[in-house]
Amino acid sequence: MEPTPAAELRFDGAAYSLDALQRAAYRLAASAASEFRVEGSDLVCSLYPAGDEVDAAALAYEMRTLALDEVLRERIRTETAAVRNTILALAFSRTGLTDNETSPGGTLPAVPDPADERSDP
């Protein structure tokens, strides 16, 4: 017999990505398991509580709050990607990792074996 969800939430697919909803569901995993399906342009989330003593309305409220939080985090990731990549490029440019990483043939340069540098008596 298929379990009955404690709550079913409908999210507009234009406002919420499946990735954001899955991230929110993961954060809620200690309280409930989640299942998603697509219905037209909507994403429907079924919540199955982890225990018997669960307030379905509170669970639904928490999922909606976490979903919005993840949408905003996704937006911030997108909006700051260029700055983040510039900072990382600058940081790695000062490590020497990007200098002569490959030889003209396209292979990585040979790494000397520390055993070859030892002097045995």
Q: Which structural class matches the secondary elements?
A: alpha+beta
The largest sheet is: 3 strands, antiparallel
Number of helices: 4
CATH class of the domain at 7-82 reads Alpha Beta
Beta-strand share of residues: 15-25%
Total DSSP E strands? 3
Q: In one word, what is the shape? A: elongated
Q: What is the CATH-assigned architecture of the domain at 7-82?
A: 2-Layer Sandwich
List the helices and strands and how they pair.
Elements: E1 7-12, H1 18-27, E2 32-39, E3 42-49, H2 56-79, H3 81-93, H4 114-117
Antiparallel strand pairs: 1-3, 2-3
Helix pairs in contact: 1-2
Q: What's this entry about, in short?
A:
By secondary structure, this protein is of the alpha+beta class. Helices cover 42% and strands 18% of the residues.
Description:
This protein is of the alpha+beta class and 121 residues long. The protein has a domain at 7-82: Alpha-Beta Plaits. The protein has four helices and three strands; from the N terminus they run βαββααα. Strands 1-3-2 form a three-stranded antiparallel β-sheet, with helices on one face. β2 and β3 (42-49) form a beta hairpin. α1 (18-27) packs across α2. The model has no long low-confidence stretch (mean pLDDT 86).
What keyword list fits this structure?
single chain, 3-stranded antiparallel beta sheet, 121 residues, alpha+beta, 4 helices, Alpha-Beta Plaits
